[in-house]
Amino acid sequence: MQSLNLPRFSAKVIERNKKLFIFDDIRRKYVALTPEEWVRQHFVAYLMTEKGFPKELLANEISIKLNGTNKRCDTIAYNRFLSPLVIVEYKSPDTPITQAVFEQIVRYNMCLKVHYLIVSNGIHHYCCRINYNDRKYTFLAEIPDYDSLEKDLSI
Fold first, then answer.
1. Confidence (pLDDT) at 155
2. H helices within the chain, ranges in order?
3. From the centroid of its chain, how far is CA 57?
4. Mean pLDDT of 143-148
5. What's the DSSP call for residue 119?
6. Average pLDDT over the chain, rounded to an integer
7. What is the pTM of this model?
8. Residue 104 pLDDT more than 90?
9. What residues are paired with 72 via a beta bridge?
10. Which one, of 64, 57, 49, lies nearest residue 79 by Cα?
11. What are phi and psi of 21, to 5 degrees?
12. Sign (positive or negative) of CA dihedral 31, 95, 86, 145
């Protein structure tokens, strides 16, 4: 798999029937190793080890209903009261982060109303904070650590 702009981590990869699978520590099972999944597993490890996101407050592949259709959020981080705090959308490393990618995550946020959106293709990472009172969003220079996100919203 392609090298990413994320810290290395100890991925558990196995082969079954000539297909590769990677262990998803959040879902506690092996899942097909696609380029997008490679990004997800690296990014989740980064959130936990570098940014202090509690494993227990992360969920992968969460179903939501949007305009009568079922959609899946790649990763959701919850606050300590189990309300959604962050949505993360992943793309494969060869997929550019475009306006359409942001529109996708914004549509998901119509249901969840989180304050932070993150998009990553493993090479480029973008994070924005949504201020519902001012009806504005701000792109951040870096992805904040978990405690900073919670403190920011408790002010």
1. 44
2. 35-49, 99-112, 146-154
3. 12
4. 94
5. E
6. 92
7. 0.93
8. no
9. 63
10. 57
11. -130, 145
12. positive
CA-based torsion, 90, 91, 92, 96: positive or negative: negative
- The owner of tokens 């998901």 is 108
Residue 138 burial (C-beta neighbours within 10 Å; 0-12, 13-18, 19+): exposed
**More confident site: 19 or 63:** 19
Query: What are the residues whose beta carbons fall under 8 Å from the beta carbon of 86, sequence distance 6 or more?
Result: 75, 76, 77, 114, 115, 116, 117, 118, 149
**Residue 154 binned pLDDT confidence (cut-offs 50, 70, 90):** low
Distance from chain centroid for Cα 51 = 13
In the prediction, which pLDDT does 40 show? 97
Which has more pLDDT, 33 or 131? 33
Structure tokens at 10: 């100890």
Tell how many helices (H) and how many strands (E) occur in the chain: 3, 9
Distances (CA, A) of 93 to 38, 90, 122: 9, 9, 6
Largest CA distance in the chain: 53
Distance of CA 101 to the CA centre of its chain: 13
